[in-house]
Design brief:
The chain is an alpha+beta fold. It is 33% helix and 23% strand. The radius of gyration is 20 Å and the shape is globular. The site of ligand DP6 has 17 residues, from helix 4.
C-alpha cells in the first residue's frame, strides 16, 4: 500500500501565524463499514450519502514555536475548553505526525462547534475529524502552494480516515466510497473517493430525516464494536456480503431502481445491528422506539405506496431516507407520527450535500 505520496517531500518556509476555518458534514452509510485492521483499514468497502445540515465547523489557529516532541494544542468545543476530547485528538495527531511533520512547529488552538445538538447521539467523529483534516491540509498548502486541489482533497480524506474511518467519507459528496472494490474505479482502503459513475436523477437531493430516539451516550463505542468483529463467527461472510452489496448498490444508484435500493439499504442496517447482537460480548444499541419507528415506516410505505425507507448507524437513532419528490408527504408523516417516538419529539431534516466548505 503506497502511503509515501502523503509524506511531504520538502520542508518549506515557516509561516509565523495563520488560521483556517472549515465546515465538514456528517455522512450516512448505505453499505456499512463494520470491522477494521490496523492502521484504520476497512475490512470491506462502504458507501455513504454525504449530509448537508449536520456538520462541524472548526477553526485552527497556528502560531509558530520551537519544534515540540508531540502536537501541542488547546481544544475548545462550543466555546468551552474540553479536556475529555483531547486524548482522541492527541491520538489522531500522533498518527498523522509522519504525514504532517509541520504540525510540530506550531501551537494549535482548535475551536469547534456542531450544527446538531450536543450529545444528540449523532456521530460527530466523522464531521469533527474531517474538519481538522481540512484545516491541516490548508496549512500544508500555505507552506507549499504548489499542491494541487486534487491532492489536498485526497490527503484530507486519508488523514481523516486515520482519525475515524467514516470521516474519510466526509470530505466530498454526494456519494463517497471508501475501501478498495473491484467495481469502483479509483477506490482505495486509504481514502474515500467520489462515487465515479453517473447517478440516476432520483437520487439527487435525496432526503434524510434523523430521528433522535436516544440522545444518551452509547454503551458501546464504534471502536469497541469494530474490534469485536475480529473474533466474530460471521465476520468473513459479512465482509464478503458487504462487498457484494456495494456492487449491487453501484448498479442501483446508476439505474434508479428504488425498490432494490430500499431492500438493500434496510438489509444493510439490520445486518449491522445483527453483527452487534451476535458479537461476544453481545450488545443492543436499538431501543424499543427504534423498532416502533421501523414498523411505522413499513406501514406507511405499504399504505401510501411510498419509497420511504430507514437506515441505522451505530446507535438507536433512525435515519429516514426518501426521494425529494416525496418530501412534503413524508415530512408531514414524520411530524405527525414518527416525532412521537423521539426524545422530546426532536428530529433533524437533512438532505444529501457536497462535502467540505470553507468557513
Ligand atoms: C456504523 O467511523 O465511527 O457508522 O473508525 O472506529 O472511528 P472508527 O469508527 P466509525 O464507524 C462507523 C460505523 C458505522 C457505519 C459506517 O459509517 O459505515
Amino acid at each position: 500500500m503506497n502511503t509515501a505520496e502523503f509524506i511531504p517531500k520538502i520542508r518549506s518556509e515557516k509561516i509565523e501565524e495563520i488560521g483556517f476555518t472549515w465546515q465538514t458534514p456528517s455522512n450516512i452509510a448505505l453499505v456499512k463499514y463494520w470491522g477494521k485492521s490496523d492502521p484504520q483499514l476497512p475490512k470491506n468497502a462502504s458507501i455513504s450519502f454525504t449530509l448537508n445540515n449536520c456538520h462541524t465547523i472548526t477553526t485552527i489557529d497556528f502560531s509558530i514555536q520551537e519544534s515540540a516532541p508531540c502536537a501541542d494544542f488547546d481544544l475548545f468545543f462550543e466555546g468551552k475548553e474540553k479536556e475529555e476530547f483531547k486524548p482522541k485528538i492527541a491520538g489522531f495527531f500522533k498518527r498523522v505526525e509522519v504525514y504532517c511533520p509541520y504540525i510540530l512547529d506550531y501551537k494549535m488552538v482548535i475551536n469547534s462547534e456542531n450544527s446538531f445538538p450536543h450529545s444528540s447521539g449523532i456521530a460527530s467523529s466523522a464531521s469533527g475529524l474531517s474538519a481538522i483534516a481540512m484545516c491541516l491540509m490548508r496549512l500544508e498548502q500555505a507552506l507549499n502552494p504548489r499542491l494541487t486541489e486534487v491532492y489536498i482533497i485526497k490527503k484530507a480524506s486519508f488523514l481523516a480516515r486515520l482519525g475515524s474511518g467514516s470521516a474519510s467519507r466526509s470530505i466530498e459528496g454526494p456519494l463517497v466510497v471508501w475501501g478498495k472494490h473491484p467495481k469502483i474505479a479509483g477506490s482505495s482502503d486509504l481514502f474515500g473517493v467520489q462515487f465515479p459513475y453517473k447517478v440516476h436523477p432520483v437520487f439527487q437531493n435525496y432526503q434524510d430525516a434523523i430521528l433522535l430516539v436516544d440522545k444518551g451516550e452509547k454503551q458501546v463505542s464504534s471502536t469497541l464494536g469494530h474490534n469485536l468483529m475480529h473474533k466474530h463467527p460471521f465476520a468473513e461472510n459479512r465482509f464478503k456480503q458487504a462487498n457484494e452489496n456495494l456492487s449491487k448498490m453501484s448498479e442501483i444508484l446508476q439505474n434508479g431502481q428504488l425498490e432494490e435500493f430500499i431492500g438493500l439499504v434496510e438489509s444493510e442496517a439490520l445486518t449491522l445491528h445483527a453483527m452487534m447482537l451476535t458479537s461476544a460480548p453481545y450488545f443492543i444499541l436499538m431501543k424499543p422506539n427504534t423498532l416502533e419507528i421501523i414498523h411505522k415506516i413499513w406501514e406507511f410505505r405499504a399504505a401510501e405506496n411510498s419509497n420511504i425507507c430507514f437506515t441505522l448507524d451505530a446507535g438507536a437513532n433512525v435515519h429516514v431516507l426518501y426521494p425529494f419528490s416525496e418530501k412534503e408527504k413524508v415530512n408531514r408523516f414524520i411530524e405527525s407520527e414518527l416525532a412521537n417516538y423521539c426524545q422530546k419529539k426532536q428530529y433533524i431534516l437533512d438532505a444529501v450535500g457536497f462535502g467540505a466548505k470553507k468557513g
